[in-house]
Amino acid sequence: MIKRILLLIVIIAKVGFAHAQTADEVYNTYIDFNEAKMNADATRQMTLAEKILPDTAKLTPKVRISFYNSLAKLYEDDSQSVNAIKYYKMVSAAQPDYYVAHRALGYLYIKDISGKQTVVDANYIQKAKLALPHLEKAQACDPDDNTLAIIKVLYRNLKDEAALNSLPARLEKLKKNCVDLLSDQ
Fold it and tell me: 135, 131, 133: which is closest to 110 by C-alpha?
């Protein structure tokens, strides 16, 4: 009987100490996260991000997307491509016209296949096909000779002349609703 009472006390104590953050607390941590970002303090930024992640649903949708974008960039700068891709995908899904996330995704997908003498194998094809739509959106919104050259090389290596020939028309269509800045307001 005493063991049961002690167990019940331990459980009650744990529940009492468990503290879900309020929406205001999560937002205040987000403010601190942005301050760490402005101060180029990646370590503190990552620590704060870990506090925010379990409670991102308590952030407004715009703040949440802005947070995911900043977190993706933080992971990208830390050479954590898998995590960066995860969060950039969330950003591009929520804000499909935000071409900055598309550019990042495109370059992250081809990171290990570009600029090398690479055999066009299944891995190359998969990564090129993942990257191309993102690179095209970025190119349409913010033309860049390097990005255009990469797009052309990828299509040539894929031996997709039809896609290469129709590229100007696709770029023209994609440039209509470009967003270059996310707002958390």
Answer: 131
